């Protein structure tokens, strides 16, 4: 996954006070997609499309990552399931991380009568579906791993285009609300993905196919029911408007890599990137091993309840709380025009929630953890996503830069399986993992302090 989850539109013609000097170019913004969604009706349609699209993408990530993939790995290699799962998920996330900025940059530069994002969203969804079918047919770890690498890579092409929709189409004053819809969709995915996957633990192939079809259907609705602005309706990528740039000169590898990562040279963007990476690493260190925790560590799981169903129940509790806090936190941050305080407090709350199962590794404590963690994670995802949209260096390169930010979502998934396996094996089991995850969340909360361009 890439529990993420950003978006951001062309802002008003003049850059807001307090934003980085490298922020949006006013010349392209006034006529950009930010102004395109006229009227509340158009905005409502786009908001619900953002909700559904993100729910579908993350249902694939979370349904497979939480239930289908751990179950299949456990069936194939029960004696080494923790290590095997860590290798497969880590390699898959590494491949996805490489494709995020590439896919975002390609969609920025796509010139198509269907729009610049739509071909990548629908084409990537179809490719993801095909690779998920391959996973369902796998009888060995190698084929399973190859299938997950390819499926996650294709899904990240979808996500790279999807996360650029808010920068393309949503005005600055509506970004908190748009981010809340993105966050709510992501949260619903923790339930929907797990619920779908848990129905197919004995028929894994059907589970993979069902999640793939959900993604294809959601992207088909996105591209047919919302307007993907034509290239001439949006600002050009900043790199294509450089004063001495030759339209025919192909950049070398070093120049291309520098261009991809140029957003990290902006201090505010860099701090947001680091904070997101730490919070996601904390979150996925726990989430990726939740099924195994219930198997091996947590006591008092109700008699007769399958552990896959227990994962779904915990995810549902967290999701309900998270949706409420997301829908309150995002619009409230718009109203108050405050982002940093919301992000910092929610990171602290996530750290505190991890002390609950540390103190009491019981089923009741896991329910309490799900409530508290869901409360703060919902606020975090809504407001941090909005914060991200306000520190992007260039409107025209929104797809590329949002995809770079999504490395902070996918990158921690590369290392989280290895970190979690190392902590569990060498530092005291699951209790040590809770401590490490809490420390990571604390550091993630602290990264809002140096941010200067956003209140």
Automatic annotation (TrEMBL):
Stretches of Low complexity bias are at: 9-36
User: Region labeled Disordered — which residues?
Assistant: 1-36
Source domain of life is Bacteria
CDD domains the record matches: MFS
The compartments listed are: Cell membrane
Q: Which InterPro entries does the record match to this protein?
A: MFS, MFS_dom, MFS_trans_sf
The topology of this chain with respect to the membrane is:
Multi-pass membrane protein
Which residue spans traverse the membrane?
Answer: 46-64, 84-106, 118-135, 178-200, 206-225, 271-291, 311-329, 341-360, 366-392, 432-451
Protein name according to UniProt: MFS transporter
Q: Where is the Major facilitator superfamily (MFS) profile domain?
A: 45-455
Enumerate the SUPFAM superfamilies for this protein.
Answer: MFS general substrate transporter (SSF103473)
Listed A to Z, the keywords are:
Membrane, Transmembrane, Transmembrane helix
Q: What is its main location?
A: membrane
The organism encoding this protein is Actinomadura gamaensis
């Amino acid at each position: 996954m890439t529990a993420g989850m950003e978006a951001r539109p062309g802002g008003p013609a003049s850059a807001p006070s307090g934003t980085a000097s490298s922020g949006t170019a006013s010349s392209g913004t006034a006529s950009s997609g930010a102004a395109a969604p006229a009227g509340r009706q158009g905005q409502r349609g786009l908001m619900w499309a953002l909700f559904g699209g993100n729910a579908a993408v993350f249902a694939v990530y979370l349904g497979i990552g939480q239930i289908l993939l751990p179950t299949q790995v456990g069936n194939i290699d029960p004696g080494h399931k923790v290590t095997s799962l860590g290798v497969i998920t880590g390699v898959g996330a590494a491949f996805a991380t490489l494709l995020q900025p590439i896919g975002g940059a390609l969609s920025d530069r796509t010139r198509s009568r269907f729009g610049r994002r739509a071909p990548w969203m629908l084409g990537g969804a179809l490719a993801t579906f095909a690779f998920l079918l391959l996973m369902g047919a796998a009888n060995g770890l190698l084929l399973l791993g190859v299938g997950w690498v390819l499926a996650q890579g294709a899904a990240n092409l979808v996500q790279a285009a999807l996360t650029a929709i808010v920068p393309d189409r949503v005005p600055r004053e509506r970004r908190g609300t748009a981010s809340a819809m993105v966050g709510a969709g992501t949260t619903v995915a923790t339930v929907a993905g797990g619920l779908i996957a848990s129905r197919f633990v004995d028929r894994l192939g059907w589970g993979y196919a069902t999640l793939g079809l959900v993604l294809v259907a959601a992207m088909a609705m996105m591209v047919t029911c919302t307007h993907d602005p034509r290239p001439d309706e949006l600002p050009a990528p900043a790199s294509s408007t450089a004063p001495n740039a030759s339209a025919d000169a192909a950049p070398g590898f070093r120049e291309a890599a520098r261009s991809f990562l140029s957003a990290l040279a902006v201090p505010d963007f860099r701090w947001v990137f680091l904070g997101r990476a730490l919070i996601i690493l904390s979150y996925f260190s726990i989430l990726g091993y939740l099924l195994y925790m219930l198997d091996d560590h947590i006591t008092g799981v109700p008699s007769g309840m399958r552990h896959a169903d227990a994962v779904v129940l915990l995810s549902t509790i967290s999701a309900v709380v998270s949706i409420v806090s997301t829908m309150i936190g995002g619009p409230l941050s718009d109203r108050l025009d405050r982002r940093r305080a919301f992000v910092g407090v929610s990171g602290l709350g996530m750290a505190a929630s991890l002390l609950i199962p540390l103190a009491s590794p019981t089923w009741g404590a896991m329910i309490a953890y799900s409530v508290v963690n869901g409360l703060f994670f919902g606020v975090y995802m809504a407001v941090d996503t909005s914060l991200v949209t306000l520190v992007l260096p260039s409107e025209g390169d929104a797809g590329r830069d949002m995809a770079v930010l999504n490395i902070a979502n996918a990158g921690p998934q590369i290392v989280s399986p290895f970190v979690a396996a190392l902590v569990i094996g060498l530092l005291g089991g699951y209790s040590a993992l809770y401590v490490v995850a809490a420390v990571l969340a604390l550091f993630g909360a602290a990264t809002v302090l140096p941010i200067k361009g956003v209140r």
